[in-house]
Amino acid sequence: MRRYALRFVALGYLAAILIAPLGVVFYRTFQDGFASAWEALSTTETIHAFKLTLIITAIAVPLNTVFGIICAIAIVRRRFPGKGLLNAFIDLPLALSPVVVGLSLFLLYGRTGWFGGFFERHDIQVLFALPAMVIATIFVSLPFVAREVVPTLREVGDEQEQAARTLGASGWQTFRRITLPSIRWAVIYGVILTTARCLGEYGAVAVISGRIQGQTETATLRVEERYDSFDLAGAYAIAIVLALIAIAVLLLMTLVKPREGTT
Amino acid sequence: MLPIAALVWASRSDGTQAFWGSVTSPQAVAALKLTVGAAFIVAVLNAVLGTITAWVLVRDDFRGKSVINSIIDLPFALPTIVAGLTLLALYGPKSPIGIDIAFTRTAILAALMFVTLPFVVRTVQPVLTEIDKEMEEAAKSLGASELTTFRRVIFPNILPGILSGFALAFAKAVGEIGSLVIISGNLPYKTEVSSVFILGQIESGNPAGAAAVAVVLLVISFAILLGVGAIRHFTTRHDRA
């Protein structure tokens, strides 16, 4: 009896908060047929918003992957002053409000900010343009790769790496032939999480993009803009595409996760 | 780190008095109270429901369990603005089931529940999987009731997981914005949370005021990180010895 009660509570909770709302959005989007949803998606601004989101993601994910691997190796394998700090601060973007991140960058690169004057003299537009949006996205999605790789690196241990070194392998060879294959799935899992975060970022980008339609409006900002202009169908259509990407991400995560343990 | 330093610098640029003025303005205080209060309620609710969910996922068995298990991560994968929109579709003005909580504080709680759902489940689940069944059996064979076994044997084991899940959910809820901008309506003094307040201050050209409230959120985040670090330190001391 208790078992069924617990199951009922858990599943009911998930249904009310997760599954049912998503189902309604799917229904609402396609109740007027597939064609109208498609039409809402194919406006110039919406296509531009998706393109922009993809460009930002394409820049942020590789950078964060490299940075995450380097950080993880530094945290697990090296000893240096400030290591404890690095270990603590790597999680900061997870605990920090994206709006606060956006505001910090706004203050740093704004006209009166520390770097603002430099970029203005050289006539480089950072704020309300692609560079600031990329930096903000990198910031909020920074920890994911490192967080996945750190425990795996710890578990694998460094005997194999030391063996490779004694056999005369260079640092790079050791990394490429020994370390990288053993953390492969953790890296992939981290990349998937990073990608999801980059595609879905809202708060930080909302602050520093200026939301110029057709220029600095990403897909998530576009959802809000459509909603605010009372174009619910348009908002739903974009939301559905983002939700489908999220579900694809979820499937990938499910596929990758079991393998992570077996490497 | 540099952006954070710039933020603190900007909040102090007009002097300590201006800083306090911004933080203690009625609208900022109302927003901060709402944010911390809502985040706390949501973190508590999720600590309870998340633990139950983790329990069901580990100990119970039923058709479609693996699907449910993957769906738990959906709030991590789904853009938060989409989360807000989906909740509005079901619990908004055009609700198919006749529940309209749009633009109320209840809506804020619902949205925060959604985005923080995975934290407790994902911190408790691995501990529950690894727990030694023999300990439970020993307790039972010594005559402990099911409730006593849970309270004295299982609960102390999963408590660190629950606490760090609680802290992470709280941190996420305090900083949340994407899912709230649509569903909360952002009415000052009523449904405006701190992050939306900050965004509003920036857009109306008052970055110093925004920075002051942002520093408060920053301090909360740091405190939570320290708390999680302390839990981790405390629970792994045996492993490291």
In short:
The complex is a heterodimer of chains A (263) and B (241). With 263 residues, chain A is mainly alpha-helical. Chain A has helices spanning 2-30, 34-41, 44-77, 83-89, 92-95, 98-109, 116-121, 130-140, 143-156, 159-166, 171-200, 203-209, 219-228, 232-262.
Write the layout of secondary structure elements.
The complex is a heterodimer of chains A (263) and B (241).
Chain A: H1 2-30, H2 34-41, H3 44-77, H4 83-89, H5 92-95, H6 98-109, H7 116-121, H8 130-140, H9 143-156, H10 159-166, H11 171-200, H12 203-209, H13 219-228, H14 232-262
Helix pairs in contact in A: 1-14, 2-14, 3-8, 3-9, 3-11, 3-13, 6-8, 6-12, 8-12, 9-11, 10-11, 11-14, 13-14
Chain B: H1 2-12, H2 15-23, H3 26-59, H4 65-71, H5 74-77, H6 80-91, H7 105-130, H8 133-141, H9 146-175, H10 178-183, H11 194-203, H12 207-235, H13 237-240
Structural description of this entry:
- The complex is a heterodimer of chains A (263) and B (241).
- In chain A, 80% of the residues lie in helices and 0% in strands.
- Chain A is mainly alpha-helical.
- Chain A has two domains: 1-31; 44-262, Orthogonal Bundle (MetI-like fold), CATH 1.10.3720.
- The longest helix of chain A has 34 residues, at 44-77.
- In chain A, 45% of the residues are buried.
- Chain B has one domain: MetI-like fold, CATH 1.10.3720.10.
- The radius of gyration of chain B is 21 Å and the shape is globular.
- The two termini of chain B are 33 Å apart.
- The mean pLDDT of chain B is 85.
- Classes of the chains: A mainly alpha (263), B mainly alpha (241).
